[in-house]
Amino acid sequence: xxxxxxxxxxxxxxxxxxxxxxxxxxxxxxxxxxxxxxxxxxxxxxxxxxxxxxxxxxxxxxxxxxxxxxxxxxxxxxxxxxxxxxxxxxxxxxxxxxxxxxxxxxxxxxxxxxxxxxxxxxxxxxxxxxxxxxxxxxxxxxxxxxxxxxxxxxxxxxxxxxxxxxxxxxxxxxxxxxxxxxxxxxxxx
Length: 189
Known about the structure:
disordered C terminus
Protein backbone atom coordinates (compact mmCIF):
# COMPACT_ATOMS: atom_id res chain seq x y z
CA UNK A 1 0.00 0.00 0.00
CA UNK A 2 1.38 3.41 -0.97
CA UNK A 3 1.37 6.28 1.54
CA UNK A 4 2.66 9.78 0.72
CA UNK A 5 3.70 12.11 3.53
CA UNK A 6 4.94 15.68 3.49
CA UNK A 7 5.11 16.50 7.22
CA UNK A 8 6.77 14.97 10.26
CA UNK A 9 6.14 11.40 9.02
CA UNK A 10 8.83 11.94 6.38
CA UNK A 11 11.38 11.51 9.16
CA UNK A 12 12.28 7.90 9.97
CA UNK A 13 12.84 9.04 13.54
CA UNK A 14 9.13 9.93 13.73
CA UNK A 15 7.48 7.26 11.57
CA UNK A 16 9.62 4.26 12.50
CA UNK A 17 11.18 5.04 15.88
CA UNK A 18 8.34 6.95 17.55
CA UNK A 19 5.26 5.59 15.79
CA UNK A 20 6.44 2.06 15.10
CA UNK A 21 5.43 2.06 11.41
CA UNK A 22 8.02 0.18 9.36
CA UNK A 23 7.89 0.85 5.59
CA UNK A 24 8.86 -1.85 3.12
CA UNK A 25 10.51 0.91 1.08
CA UNK A 26 10.63 4.72 1.01
CA UNK A 27 11.57 7.21 -1.69
CA UNK A 28 11.42 10.86 -2.65
CA UNK A 29 8.21 11.76 -4.53
CA UNK A 30 5.91 14.72 -5.18
CA UNK A 31 2.36 15.89 -5.86
CA UNK A 32 1.83 18.26 -8.79
CA UNK A 33 -0.59 21.14 -8.44
CA UNK A 34 -0.54 21.39 -4.64
CA UNK A 35 1.18 23.55 -2.06
CA UNK A 36 2.34 22.78 1.47
CA UNK A 37 0.53 24.97 4.00
CA UNK A 38 0.41 25.11 7.79
CA UNK A 39 -3.37 25.27 8.05
CA UNK A 40 -4.24 22.46 10.45
CA UNK A 41 -4.79 23.93 13.93
CA UNK A 42 -2.71 22.16 16.53
CA UNK A 43 -2.23 22.56 20.26
CA UNK A 44 -2.70 26.23 21.15
CA UNK A 45 0.44 28.12 22.09
CA UNK A 46 2.89 25.17 22.12
CA UNK A 47 2.17 23.48 18.76
CA UNK A 48 -0.01 25.99 16.87
CA UNK A 49 -0.12 24.43 13.39
CA UNK A 50 0.47 21.26 11.45
CA UNK A 51 1.07 20.76 7.74
CA UNK A 52 -1.54 20.09 5.09
CA UNK A 53 -1.84 20.46 1.34
CA UNK A 54 -3.94 22.86 -0.71
CA UNK A 55 -4.58 22.96 -4.45
CA UNK A 56 -2.25 25.37 -6.26
CA UNK A 57 -1.53 25.02 -9.97
CA UNK A 58 1.85 26.76 -9.67
CA UNK A 59 3.30 24.55 -6.95
CA UNK A 60 4.39 21.00 -6.17
CA UNK A 61 4.60 19.37 -2.75
CA UNK A 62 7.65 17.19 -2.23
CA UNK A 63 7.66 14.44 0.32
CA UNK A 64 8.24 10.74 0.88
CA UNK A 65 6.37 7.87 -0.73
CA UNK A 66 6.30 4.89 1.62
CA UNK A 67 5.34 1.38 0.61
CA UNK A 68 3.65 0.09 3.75
CA UNK A 69 2.19 -3.23 4.83
CA UNK A 70 -1.62 -3.01 4.49
CA UNK A 71 -2.18 -3.28 8.24
CA UNK A 72 -0.37 0.04 8.82
CA UNK A 73 -3.11 2.25 7.38
CA UNK A 74 -5.24 2.16 10.53
CA UNK A 75 -2.19 3.14 12.61
CA UNK A 76 -1.59 6.13 10.32
CA UNK A 77 -5.29 7.07 10.58
CA UNK A 78 -4.96 7.03 14.37
CA UNK A 79 -1.84 9.20 14.38
CA UNK A 80 -3.30 11.73 11.95
CA UNK A 81 -6.51 11.85 13.97
CA UNK A 82 -10.04 12.95 13.12
CA UNK A 83 -9.01 16.43 11.95
CA UNK A 84 -7.39 15.01 8.81
CA UNK A 85 -9.11 13.22 5.96
CA UNK A 86 -7.42 10.44 4.04
CA UNK A 87 -7.52 10.90 0.25
CA UNK A 88 -6.08 8.99 -2.69
CA UNK A 89 -3.96 11.10 -5.00
CA UNK A 90 -1.53 10.73 -7.90
CA UNK A 91 2.08 10.77 -6.74
CA UNK A 92 5.04 11.29 -9.08
CA UNK A 93 8.19 9.26 -8.59
CA UNK A 94 11.83 9.93 -9.47
CA UNK A 95 11.76 6.99 -11.91
CA UNK A 96 9.36 8.98 -14.12
CA UNK A 97 6.19 7.02 -13.37
CA UNK A 98 3.34 7.80 -11.02
CA UNK A 99 1.24 5.80 -8.56
CA UNK A 100 -1.97 6.37 -6.63
CA UNK A 101 -1.25 6.73 -2.93
CA UNK A 102 -3.02 7.64 0.28
CA UNK A 103 -2.24 11.00 1.84
CA UNK A 104 -3.94 13.24 4.38
CA UNK A 105 -5.23 16.80 4.35
CA UNK A 106 -6.88 19.08 6.87
CA UNK A 107 -10.66 18.75 7.09
CA UNK A 108 -11.17 22.30 8.39
CA UNK A 109 -8.17 24.37 7.27
CA UNK A 110 -7.47 27.63 9.06
CA UNK A 111 -5.24 30.30 7.50
CA UNK A 112 -2.78 32.48 9.38
CA UNK A 113 -1.17 29.75 11.48
CA UNK A 114 2.54 29.17 12.04
CA UNK A 115 4.24 25.88 12.90
CA UNK A 116 6.48 25.54 15.93
CA UNK A 117 10.25 25.36 15.42
CA UNK A 118 10.11 21.82 16.80
CA UNK A 119 7.56 20.63 14.23
CA UNK A 120 9.25 22.43 11.34
CA UNK A 121 12.56 20.79 12.34
CA UNK A 122 10.94 17.34 12.11
CA UNK A 123 9.84 18.17 8.57
CA UNK A 124 13.32 19.44 7.70
CA UNK A 125 14.89 16.28 9.15
CA UNK A 126 12.75 14.13 6.83
CA UNK A 127 13.35 16.43 3.86
CA UNK A 128 17.12 16.14 4.30
CA UNK A 129 16.99 12.40 5.03
CA UNK A 130 15.29 11.75 1.68
CA UNK A 131 17.19 14.39 -0.31
CA UNK A 132 14.25 16.60 -1.24
CA UNK A 133 15.29 19.36 -3.69
CA UNK A 134 17.56 22.02 -2.14
CA UNK A 135 15.22 24.84 -3.22
CA UNK A 136 12.29 23.09 -1.47
CA UNK A 137 14.34 22.65 1.71
CA UNK A 138 15.39 26.30 1.53
CA UNK A 139 11.71 27.35 1.33
CA UNK A 140 10.98 25.21 4.39
CA UNK A 141 13.88 26.85 6.23
CA UNK A 142 12.36 30.27 5.50
CA UNK A 143 9.00 29.34 7.06
CA UNK A 144 8.03 31.68 9.89
CA UNK A 145 7.47 29.82 13.15
CA UNK A 146 5.58 30.50 16.37
CA UNK A 147 4.47 28.87 19.59
CA UNK A 148 7.67 28.81 21.59
CA UNK A 149 7.52 28.52 25.38
CA UNK A 150 11.02 28.63 26.91
CA UNK A 151 10.64 25.98 29.62
CA UNK A 152 8.20 23.66 27.81
CA UNK A 153 9.38 23.64 24.19
CA UNK A 154 12.67 21.77 24.88
CA UNK A 155 10.85 18.82 26.50
CA UNK A 156 8.04 18.55 23.93
CA UNK A 157 9.67 15.80 21.83
CA UNK A 158 9.86 13.53 24.88
CA UNK A 159 6.31 14.38 25.98
CA UNK A 160 4.88 13.79 22.50
CA UNK A 161 6.77 10.51 22.17
CA UNK A 162 5.40 9.18 25.46
CA UNK A 163 1.86 10.41 24.68
CA UNK A 164 1.91 8.77 21.22
CA UNK A 165 3.07 5.45 22.64
CA UNK A 166 0.32 5.46 25.26
CA UNK A 167 -2.37 6.57 22.79
CA UNK A 168 -1.34 4.04 20.15
CA UNK A 169 -1.97 1.21 22.61
CA UNK A 170 -5.27 2.44 23.99
CA UNK A 171 -8.15 3.79 21.85
CA UNK A 172 -9.95 5.21 24.90
CA UNK A 173 -6.89 7.23 25.93
CA UNK A 174 -6.55 8.43 22.35
CA UNK A 175 -10.16 9.68 22.26
CA UNK A 176 -9.71 11.45 25.58
CA UNK A 177 -6.53 13.08 24.27
CA UNK A 178 -8.26 14.38 21.14
CA UNK A 179 -11.16 15.69 23.24
CA UNK A 180 -8.75 17.56 25.52
CA UNK A 181 -6.93 19.07 22.53
CA UNK A 182 -10.22 20.28 21.04
CA UNK A 183 -11.22 21.78 24.39
CA UNK A 184 -7.87 23.59 24.64
CA UNK A 185 -8.33 24.94 21.12
CA UNK A 186 -11.82 26.25 21.94
CA UNK A 187 -10.64 27.88 25.16
CA UNK A 188 -7.73 29.52 23.35
CA UNK A 189 -9.97 31.15 20.71
